[in-house]
Amino acid sequence: MAFLPSAIQSKMPAPRAVLRSSLCRTRVFLSALLALTLLPVVSAQGHPPAQMDATALVRRAVQHRLDAGKSHRPVRYLIHRTDERHDTTKAILETVDGDVARLVAIDGKPLSAMADRAELARLDTLAAHPEMQEHRHKGEQKDAERVDRLLALLPDAFVYRFEGMTPCAAGQCYRLSFTPNPRFTPPNMEADLLRGIAGEVWIDATQERLTRLEGHFIADVNFGFGIVGKLNKGGTVLLEQTDIGGHDWELTRLTLHVTGKALMVKPLSFQINEEANHFAPVSPGLRYRDAIQLLKQSTP
Question: What's the Cα-to-Cα distance from 294 to each of 6, 43, 79, rounded to whole Å?
Fold first, then answer.
């Protein structure tokens, strides 16, 4: 589900190549936090909390998440996104060729007849040029590969601690805290981002799935020694996921408040809220052109 990656977009035009690299690392890091919320966590049932090995639990959970990704059931859904400049609602369909989206509302109101015709024309253009969808899909795949690499680092990058049980929407949840591991040595520039965030996660005690993550940047995070970019201390991220039926968990809420700089001088500001709902299954073999037809036939 391309929920979080779509949340980070470029806000300045140049130098494009270096800036795109900087924002890509930010997007991938936040995507890894998204992946963390999709981890099925194996609890230490039958053992006192004091005996829980939280790091081993997360290590197992990473492998479970990777295994679950192989059997992901594609869905369609609506996503409402607001930021400093826009308020949009899009209908999303997941396909074997990548996600396809149709803009259906701006500022909470349906598109005008003219805007809707333009959106339908955009979809027709996409259907006529499969290379455009292929390029987009390759970008999604590369992001997913980077996320998987970061996922493999999570057990060692953070120190996890069981904090107790807490009421949650699913009933009772385990509450774990995580902080940067001072012994962790990032193997690359992307992994440098893992050293600056701490927070808590809530895990459903019945289905053993994470329902909520709250993270905050406890230090400035530099990549490229601060030359390529920097995220400022104090930024926050909130993620929530929900069982949409059939023990299929999807991210349903994202709140992101992050500031920083690109190329040492260009200000960055991400003030984003996203909510996803109206989930429904689609055919596992759905192709992107078929998804376009479904989107065009649906009533916004």
Answer: 22, 41, 17
